[in-house]
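Format notes (please read before filing issues)

Several people have asked whether sequences and structure tokens are stored in separate files. They are not. Every record keeps both together, in the order shown below: the sequence lines, then the token lines. Line labels are part of the format and must not be stripped during preprocessing.
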Amino acid sequence: MRNEHSAILRLVSRLGGLSHDVKRRDDAERARALILDIDHLLRGHLAREDADLYPAMMGAADPRTRALGTSAAGEMGGLLGVWTDYRDHWTVATILGGTRRFAAVTGGVIGALSLRIEMENDVLYPAMDRPDGGAARDAA
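Then the structure lines:
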């Protein structure tokens, strides 16, 4: 799952750079393709977290790990909603119709995703790596 984070961050970095340089239709089409690529990776990653990571954390022996898992699962729903709205709104046509707005909104979404990935790498996954983290430490 950590490798998936790296792949998602690479794609969002490319999207962030491109978002400030949309001038023609092919630029908007590349941006839209990146959005869909990120969506594919992100949704698969989240499905694995929902199926493996969060249940393992919520069933862990350590009460801090259980609380962290419950909190993280709840917070992710909000971020997923923001991402879904972003993905659905920014079509090729809307990107071309508001390139400055697209760049600004993209920066905000990328920032939120990046912060979430950082938290998971720095807090969630290490919690599961601890000996008292839970039975499914290998899920991360």
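For reference, the curators noted about this record: DSSP finds five helices and no strands in the chain. Residues 135-140 have pLDDT under 50 and may be disordered.
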